[in-house]
Hints:
The complex is a heterodimer of chains A (311) and B (271).
Chain A: E1 4-15, E2 18-29, E3 33-37, H1 44-51, E4 59-64, H2 73-79, E5 80-83, H3 95-105, H4 110-123, H5 139-151, E6 157-161, H6 169-185, E7 189-194, H7 197-201, E8 205-210, E9 213-218, H8 220-226, E10 230-236, H9 239-250, E11 255-257, E12 260-265, H10 268-279, E13 283-289, H11 293-301, H12 305-310
Parallel strand pairs in A: 3-7, 3-8, 5-6, 6-7
Antiparallel strand pairs in A: 1-2, 1-4, 8-9, 10-12, 10-13, 11-12
Helix pairs in contact in A: 3-4, 3-5, 5-6
Chain B: H1 12-29, H2 31-52, H3 67-96, H4 99-104, H5 110-133, H6 145-171, H7 177-192, H8 205-213, H9 215-227, H10 241-264
Helix pairs in contact in B: 1-5, 2-3, 3-5, 3-6, 5-6, 5-10, 6-9, 6-10, 9-10
Amino acid sequence: MSELAIEVSDLTKSFNDRRALDRVALQVESKHIAALLGPNGGGKTTLFRILATLLQPDSGSARICGFDPVTAPDRVRRVLGVVFQSPSLDKKLTAAENLRHHGHLFGMRGRSLERRIGVMLERFDIDDRANDQVETLSGGLARRVEIAKGMLPGPKVLLLDEPSTGLDPVARLDLWHQLDEVRSTEDVAVLMTTHILDEAERCDRVTILDAGCVVAAGTPASLKGQVGGEVIRIDSDQPQAIMERISQEMNLTADVVGRTVRIESPEGAGLIPKLAEVLSDHVQTITLGHPTLEDVFIHQTGRSFNREREE
Amino acid sequence: MSGAVAVQRAPVSLAVYSMWRRELTRFWRQKSRLFGAVATPLLFWLVLGAGFGGSFSHSASDSDTNYLEYFFPGTVVLAVLFTAIYSTISVIEDRQEGFLQGVMVAPVSRGGIVAGKMLGATTLAMAQGLLMMLIAPLIGIPCTAMSFFYALLALFGVAFGLSGLGLMIAWSMESTSGFHAIMNLLLMPMWLLSGAVFPLSDAHSLIKVLMYANPLTYGVSAFRSGLYHSAKSAPAQAAPLTACILVTAAFAILMVMGSIRLANRPSRNGR
């Protein structure tokens, strides 16, 4: 029996003429937290819905703990916890009532259900609000109840769709605290979709999805290793001119993303004095850094990650 | 790894119970619904009943029956209709607010979800109907345990059928706004042409045809004969009691089966 919690290969899905997923492959090991990173419209949610048994792919295969969401949706649902981007709690019910209802749908009942509800309320630190109607809870607290609900039946795989959407920075940190807690206490694999680079950075494995295709996959460190050494960014109001000058006078490859000129180079720091000298009058700032996942995205697609999102 | 995982579906009865209970809890926490479902039919009854009272001469029954009394069973059915329909229509809100998506990824048949919802709506409608029926003795309809029992039985059939109808309409609707058109163009005419407001025997022949085709006519008629079970005389029935009971039961079963089938259909792409 394979150790993979999620295994996707060659998965393709089109809506009318638009190809939302194009031969996508993905693997998540048990006990890992994996991110599906990509700009909005990249196909993350389509993949999420297929894995959650809510949408059928055109071709290719998906397996969750060895079960096929197309031919055996009920088996998949038994081992799957799902946290949607939009709330799925009944606002008129209390947190505990929402959990109880969800447990019933999974065939849990009686004292074992109550015990498990107690464990979840305590683990996610919502026991003092257990008997408050969900409509009185803050966004961060409600998200905790959502995750508690998803984890209640003890799933082998937890799917989260953009879990930090609508959360303030404090609640986001809190969410991560909760996910770490989940990972350390339950035998579960987590797959989250996200368009937030920092969030993906914290995962064990990242799959970058753009325009329905996987453009890169690996651990955050290995992905960043694909980008050559260090990254120099030069902000300027004439990026095009600067890029040309760099390639002529310094014989370096540079690319322009928005108003930033990027240079990937193994000897990053050593180049800076020379760059400052050559470009002195046109430059606003020069920064040097280790590659981020954004650099990985640009490296693979030649486009800025954020620009897509602002459109 | 998969060996340790239970693969059977969760028992449907537990899901039905849980959905049913949720309906009741929600209703109880929305007090305005409680009020609205009883107050509107009561207002109809008093205003229409008092207004038409003078001009009502019901040829087919004995002269004892005044309009307020004639209209009363129809009012109870209206309360049942309002509650059953508004309870099932909440499935649209469930979908919009996202609650339904969480239910859809649970290992339980969608038919069970819908059945729970329908049972909840039926229970609430019955409770409202029962509340209204307490007025019956006050307006001179002789009530006994038996007449109450028969009337409730008929009302149960009506409530179940209307809940099923409501769910079938609501299941595939995207928003509640479209629902108002359905309420005005289908459900209110159904009630108006059920013998609730005027007797079938007095109607124009074209209207008569519509009334005979309307399943609710038989429900109202069955309920009325249940209510008058212990009375010496009663308003004339639209059809023989057996036919009324059969049509009401058949309609309820048809609607329930229909909505469960609809829910069990594979979901549409991308929704």
